[in-house]
Every structure is written in structure tokens, then in C-alpha cells.
Write a structure and sequence with these properties.
Number of helices: 3
Shape: elongated
Radius of gyration: 25 Å
Strand order of the largest sheet: 1-2-3-4-8-7-6-5
Number of domains: 2
Order of helices and strands: HEHEEEEEEEH
Helix content: 25-40%
Number of strands: 8
Strand content: 25-35%
Distance between the termini: 91 Å
Low-confidence stretches: 35-39
Length: 181
Amino acid sequence: MLNNARQGILRGLVLMTLFSALIVAALGGINRLAASIQRVSAQPFATIEEARRHIGLAHITMPAYFPEGIAWPPSLLIGQKKPFPAFAMEFRKTGGSDIILIVAQYSGASDARTLQRVQLTAAQEETAYTIKKQPVQLQVGRCSTGAACSQMRWTSNDIQHTVLFVGSPLELIRIAESMIH
């Protein structure tokens, strides 16, 4: 009788362990499925037109003015369609590897900082500014690289624009002026 009781307990423990492992596997599969659905799928693009078509932005705003020392073409074009349309371009110093200019635009209330490898991390000054009747926010401070940098943000036709320049705010204003029509 004691032997039957032990077998019953062991059988119950094995069944409980198998059932627990099955639940853990099912929850892990559901978690993996949810993560793949929500994944931000930022990807590089070869051309601005390819990015615009893939992401679904009606227009990608490009500066008409570039200060001396910025290499053309952009060193990186990166964008995403989900969870919100976003696009960023990186420009490097002529003859160097340092990122000197980032132009980003995105749709919705979210932020495209995840697409920016250099970010304004310590704003020392913040000023409301107007360019061609367009209100913009100018920030001056330090970037994540430690260098002095400036950033401008504005919204036009429900598209958020961010331009970060590792350099003088006066040059950044000229870049932004060339983008706002």
C-alpha cells in the first residue's frame, strides 16, 4: 500500500512538472509572437526615394544649405514604417568618420531618437524661434559624443522635424531655414 502511495505521488509530481513546462513553453511562444509583432523594424536604405516609398512618408525634407565640411551623400539613410513612420539621414565630416549632421522626420507623437546615433543629451539653452513664420525650438548644449551641438525641432503638416548639428547654432539656423518653405 505504501508503495502505491509513493507511485501516486511520483506520478503526480511528474505530471505537474510536465504541465508546468507546457505552460512555460506556451507563454514563451506568446511572448515571442507579441515581440515580433511590436518590433521596430528600422532598416537602412540605399536612396532617399527608396526610403520614402517604403516608409510611406509623402515627402522627405532635405536641406538646401550645407555648411562647408559636410560630406555628400549622406553616410546613412535609415527608416522605419512601424510603430510609426520615421526617417533619419546622417552626414559625416568631409574626410572623417565623425557624424556632424542628422536630419530626422517622423509622423505621430512619438520620437525618432532611436534612429539617431548622436543625440543632444545636455541642453544648456533652449529658445523658441521663428523661421519663415514657422515656430521652432532651438536647443544648444552637448551631444552624446561630448561635443558642443545644437538642435532644432518643429512640426509641419503633422510631421515632426529634428535637425541636430555638431557645431554652431548659427549654421544650424541656416540649415533649418533652407528646409522650411
